[in-house]
Amino acid sequence: MRDQVDLVLVGHALAHVDDFDGLIAEAAAVLAPHGLVAIDFHHVLGLAQGQFDVVSHSHRSYLSLLSLEHALERNGLVTIAAQQISEYAGTVRVLAASAATSTQVADGLFDPERIRTVERAERVTDASGYSDLGRRARHVCDDLTEFLRGCRRDGRSVVGYGAASRATALINIAGIGTDLLPLVADRSTAKQGRLLPRALIPIRDPAAIEEAAADDIVILVWPLAAQIMEQLAMARHRNARFVRFMPELTFLT
């Protein structure tokens, strides 16, 4: 007999597995009678509202609470609490329990129906909910391209920050190359000295930002903008501009 546990943590894992139901079935199989499964996932609502940069080869699925609940039900689990949080620019945190138990969360703040209502209104389980995604993507890409061309025209040096999958998606969909963005800085030593996929933009240590005396810094991992600006205090002190393009063009202070 397998050991049973009181809590199974599934933190942003479902989007990356090939066997979606298999992972949930494994969690259900080891759960004690009154145990809980805690699941975090990036909310597909963000994609419906224009976060096209979240699309990557590493993601096998994009979830709503409504779609997750079908999978939970197939494996004998039910949602007892759910909450939207700001992590990764839109995460849903779910608590699930065995359908055979009477486990409940009394606090209305965690009522799953609040999220279900939003998802139904935004039609996230239907293709029509994504009908505006192409237009939003083109608008963001046009803004980015025009901004970078304007910097080049005005003699302003510009670099990017954050060689994450979001950066790869945005840069390549916009068709940006080294003529407009000479480098992308990233703190990860595993990425430094390599190239951004397809765009072939060099990835450098953040020290390269000061070496280039960059006038403008495009934050490509925009959910971490506040944290990145704190890390780049020297650039702030010399009045470099920080800008992000997702979900829309915004100059940051």
List the helices and strands and how they pair.
Layout: E1 5-11, H1 20-29, E2 31-42, H2 44-48, H3 65-74, E3 77-85, E4 91-98, H4 112-122, H5 133-154, E5 158-161, H6 165-174, E6 184-185, E7 203-204, H7 207-211, E8 216-219, H8 225-231, H9 233-237, E9 241-244, E10 250-252
Parallel strand pairs: 1-2, 5-6, 5-8, 6-7, 8-9
Antiparallel strand pairs: 2-4, 3-4, 9-10
Helix pairs in contact: 5-6
Keywords:
253 residues, alpha/beta, six-stranded mixed β-sheet, four-stranded mixed β-sheet, 10 strands
Q: If you had to describe this structure to a student in words, what would you say it looks like?
A:
The chain contains nine helices and ten strands. By secondary structure, the protein is an alpha/beta fold. The strands form two sheets. The protein has a six-stranded mixed beta sheet. The chain is elongated. The protein starts with a strand and ends with a strand.
Low-confidence stretches: none
* Alpha-carbon Rg, integer: 21 Å
- Tertiary shape: elongated
Counting DSSP E segments of at least 2 residues, the number of strands comes to 10
Mean pLDDT: 96
Helix content: 25-40%
Q: If helices are DSSP runs of H or I spanning 4 or more residues, what is the number of helices?
A: 9
Q: Give the N-to-C terminal Cα separation.
A: 57 Å
Main β-sheet, spatial strand arrangement? 7-6-5-8-9-10
Main sheet: strands, sense, barrel: 6 strands, mixed
- Give the structural class: alpha/beta
Order of helices and strands: EHEHHEEHHEHEEHEHHEE
Report the sheet-strand fraction.
15-25%
